[in-house]
C-alpha cells in the first residue's frame, strides 16, 4: 500500500520543525498542510481533539499528536535508515529523559522573553540560559547530542535555535556569550540538509514575533 503521510503544521513552530526534520532525515515524502491557528481547520480539530494543537502527523488517515511522540513514531515506522534513538535501552531512556527535560523546561522561559516585560522578561532570559548551560553539559565534547550524528535530542532542541535571533534581539543579550557550545552545535546542525530545509529564516521568525507582540499590546 502506498503510504499517505500528511503534516498539519505552522511554519514558525519549533515543535512542527521537529517533525519536518525527522521526516526529512528518513526521506519520507509527505503533504505539508499549513494551519491558521487563529482559525483552526476542521481537520485539525478532528485529528487532535484533545489539545487542538499542531503538529499532527496523519499516517494513512490516522493521527499522531505531540511532537516528541511523533518523532519516535517516525523512527519506529521508517526504521530502515537514519536511526533517531540510540539502540541500547539505557541510552534510549537517557535520550527520552533529555527530550522530556527540553519539553518541560525550555518553552516557558523562552516565551517569557518575547511575551512579557520587566521582571518576568528578565527572569525568562536567566532561566533559558540556565537550561541551555545544563544542556551544554549533556552535549560535552560531542558533535551532536546523538554523538556523531543527529538524534532525537538534537531534533528536539534545534527548533529553539532558529528562535535565538528573536530572543537575543528582543532581550538585547548574547546567547553565544553565555553558551558558546550550544551556538557551535546549532551551526553544525544547520549544515545538515534535513535541518537547513526544515528551519525558517530566523529574521522571518523575528518579524512574525514582532507582529504578535503588537497584537498582544506588548509593543
Ligand atoms: N507539546 C506540544 C506543543 C505543540 C504546540 O504548542 N503547538 C502550538 C504551536 S507552536 C499550537 O498548536 N498552538 C495552538 C493553540 O495553543 O491553540 C508538542 O510538542 O507537539
Please, could you describe this protein's structure?
- This protein folds into 2 domains: 73 residues, Glutaredoxin (3-Layer(aba) Sandwich), CATH 3.40.30.10; 128 residues, Glutathione S-transferase Yfyf (Class Pi), Chain A, domain 2.
- The chain contains 12 helices and 4 strands, in the order βαβαββαααααααααα.
- β1, α1 and β2 form a beta-alpha-beta unit.
- α1 packs parallel to α3, α4 runs parallel beside α7 and α5 packs antiparallel against α6.
- The longest helix is centred in the middle third of the chain and has 22 residues.
- The protein is globular.
Sheet having the most strands: 4 strands, mixed
- Stretches where pLDDT falls below 50 for ≥5 residues? none
Helix and strand run: EHEHEEHHHHHHHHHH
Approximately how much beta-strand content do the residues carry?
5-15%
CATH hierarchy: architecture of the largest domain: Up-down Bundle
Q: What molecules are bound to this protein? A: glutathione
Q: Roughly how much helix do the residues carry, as a percent range?
A: 55-70%
In short:
One of its GO terms (cellular component) is cytoplasm. By secondary structure, this protein is an alpha+beta fold. The chain contains twelve helices and four strands.
Give the helix/strand layout.
Blueprint: E1 5-9, H1 14-26, E2 31-34, H2 42-47, E3 56-59, E4 62-65, H3 67-77, H4 89-105, H5 107-115, H6 118-139, H7 152-161, H8 164-171, H9 175-178, H10 180-190, H11 193-196, H12 202-216
Parallel strand pairs: 1-2
Antiparallel strand pairs: 1-3, 3-4
Bound molecules: glutathione (GSH).
Amino acid at each position: 500500500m502506498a503510504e499517505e503521510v500528511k503534516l498539519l503544521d505552522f511554519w514558525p513552530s519549533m515543535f512542527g520543525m521537529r517533525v519536518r526534520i525527522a521526516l526529512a532525515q528518513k526521506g519520507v515524502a509527505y503533504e505539508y498542510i499549513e494551519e491558521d491557528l487563529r482559525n483552526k481547520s476542521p481537520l485539525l480539530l478532528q485529528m487532535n481533539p484533545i489539545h487542538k494543537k499542531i503538529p499532527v502527523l496523519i499516517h494513512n488517515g490516522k493521527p499522531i499528536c505531540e511532537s516528541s511522540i511523533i518523532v519516535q513514531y517516525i523512527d519506529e515506522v521508517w526504521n530502515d535508515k537514519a536511526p533517531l534513538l540510540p539502540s541500547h535501552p539505557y541510552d534510549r531512556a537517557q535520550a527520552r529523559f533529555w527530550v522530556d527535560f527540553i519539553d518541560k523546561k525550555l518553552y516557558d522561559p523562552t516565551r517569557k522573553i518575547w511575551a512579557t516585560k520587566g521582571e518576568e522578561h528578565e527572569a525568562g532570559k536567566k532561566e533559558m540560559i540556565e537550561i541551555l548551560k545544563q544542556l551544554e553539559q549533556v552535549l560535552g565534547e560531542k558533535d551532536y547530542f546523538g554523538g556523531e550524528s543527529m538524534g532525537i535530542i538534537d531534533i528536539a532542541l534545534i527548533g529553539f535555535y532558529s528562535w535565538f535571533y528573536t530572543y537575543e534581539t528582543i532581550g538585547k543579550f548574547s546567547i553565544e556569550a553565555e553558551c558558546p557550545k550550544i551556538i557551535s552545535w546549532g551551526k553544525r546542525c544547520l549544515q545538515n540538509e534535513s535541518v537547513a530545509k526544515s528551519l525558517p529564516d530566523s529574521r522571518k521568525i523575528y518579524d512574525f514575533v514582532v507582529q504578535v507582540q503588537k497584537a498582544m499590546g506588548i509593543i
